[in-house]
Each structure stands twice: as C-alpha cells, then as structure tokens.
Write a structure and sequence with these properties.
Length: 255
C-alpha cells in the first residue's frame, strides 16, 4: 500500500539547487527513522516526489539512488521503492567489535565458543598463513549471538609464530579477536566478501536453513608481510549487511 503523502516544509522551494536532493533524502530518512515508514513499506513514486517537492526528476532520482546505496531503501525496476529491511551493518574497512555494535543497539550479546584446538594446517590454511602444509596452527570456532539469535559464525586460524601464547588463553573470559587485537600488532589487512551457501554444520550453528544464502567475510592480517591470522566470518544474509562509508582519501568515516 503506498505510503501516505505528506506536504513538504514551506522552505523546500527556496532550498539551493545544489542541496535539494539532500532535502529529499532527509525527508525520507526522517520518516524511516521515526517509524512512520517501516521495513517493506512502499515509498511515494518518483513522480509523486517530483510534484510534492517541486524538484526535477533527476534530483529525486539522485536522492533515492543515494538512499539505496546507503541501504536505507531498496528499488525494484518497474515496481517502486521500498523501505529496506532493518539489518545491522558491519564495517569492511576496520576490525570492529561485534559485541560493542550489538550492545550499542541496546541488545544482549553472547559469544559461544565451539572449538579451541591446535591442528595440522591444510594446504589452503598453510598457504594463507605462509606455513608448510601440516605445520601446527591454532584454530578456534565461535558463534556470536544478538538477543539469542546467531548473527555470525567465526572460524579463525592463527599463526603460532606470531601469537605463541594464543592457545594458552581462557576464551571464556576474552574473545580470540580481542586477545589478538590487544597483543599482536598488524600493519596490513585484507577483506574479501563472497555470497555462499552454508554447510549443514554451519547452518545448524547459525540456526538457519542450509538453503538460505550467507555473506562470507574472509579476513587476513599481516605484520611486516608475515601472515598472522586467517578468519572466515559467516553471516546469514537475511540478518546482516556488510558495508562501509569512507572519504576519498581512503579513511573511514566514524560517527
């Protein structure tokens, strides 16, 4: 059902042309923020917004396009624009503490350790960590939950040469990622995102159907070109979003 039209503020017509698209963005974002429009609601059409705000179709299109890029709305060709699902978003440009993000939203956070072991590196893991196949590596698996719902499955391999005390830690008191960030310096980081289907075991740990897609974030870190970690973070696609906002100089924008 189309969202109810609301008259624009009287000052809209006098808004300078260079910022008019931002005026529409603020209007739409405000309606989403205050709950007037909820996930799945259909937005006014581009033609309706052109008439409502007295602005060009190009200006309206730019506003909607940027809202889509920011994940606030989704646009379906030939159908219309809709309020996007409210998914948490993780930053791709930094190692963020998922626990802090969840608590910042006012939700309960839990970490369930599944595996803590020292194993022989497979060919893939050895290549990623600059080791020989069969060489010993640390391995942990844990599930991060928000209000009891699994949000991320973290599968981590650690180079013992760079973190020799990793296997001696009590990870019921401190997460593997927190220990590494606190004790091991790194000067390079790589993030790669893929769309994948989970294995049956992964789906069970994430409390989801194995036929539902996931986002897989693979992260590697280095210090002076020596690999430290290989981490695979699996997120149910229907529950999570990965993205970043950054300046043209490459620095992330923090709020």
């Amino acid at each position: 059902m189309p969202a109810k039209r609301t008259s624009p503020p009287a000052s809209a017509a006098s808004t300078p042309p260079m910022v008019r698209y931002q005026h529409i963005k603020d209007f739409v974002a405000g309606k989403i923020q205050d709950g007037t429009w909820t996930p799945g609601d259909r937005l006014p059409s581009e033609n309706d917004l052109v008439l409502q705000f007295g602005m060009s179709r190009m200006t309206v299109n730019r506003a909607l396009r940027e809202l889509q890029e920011q994940g606030r709305i989704r646009r379906v060709a030939g159908v219309g624009s809709f309020v996007a699902d409210d998914k948490p978003q993780a930053n791709l440009l930094q190692i963020a503490r998922l626990a802090d993000d969840i608590r910042r939203r006012g939700h309960d956070y839990q970490c369930q350790m599944v595996t803590i072991e020292r194993i022989a590196a497979t060919l893939e893991v050895a290549a990623a960590l600059g080791l020989h196949t069969g060489e010993s590596v640390f391995h942990t698996v844990c599930v991060h939950l928000e209000d009891g719902v699994a949000m991320q499955l973290e599968d981590r391999f650690v180079n013992p040469r760079m973190a020799p005390e990793f296997g001696n830690q009590d990870f019921s008191q401190e997460q593997p990622s927190d220990y590494l960030v606190r004790t091991v310096l790194f000067d390079q980081m790589e993030h790669v995102v893929d769309a994948v289907l989970p294995s049956a075991e992964q789906a069970a740990l994430l409390q989801m159907d194995a036929h539902q897609p996931c986002l897989l974030l693979t992260r590697r870190t280095w210090m002076r070109d020596v690999p430290i970690t290989l981490v695979r973070c699996l997120h149910p696609g229907a529950r999570y979003r990965l993205g970043s906002r950054f300046r043209t100089d490459g620095n992330a924008v923090t709020s």
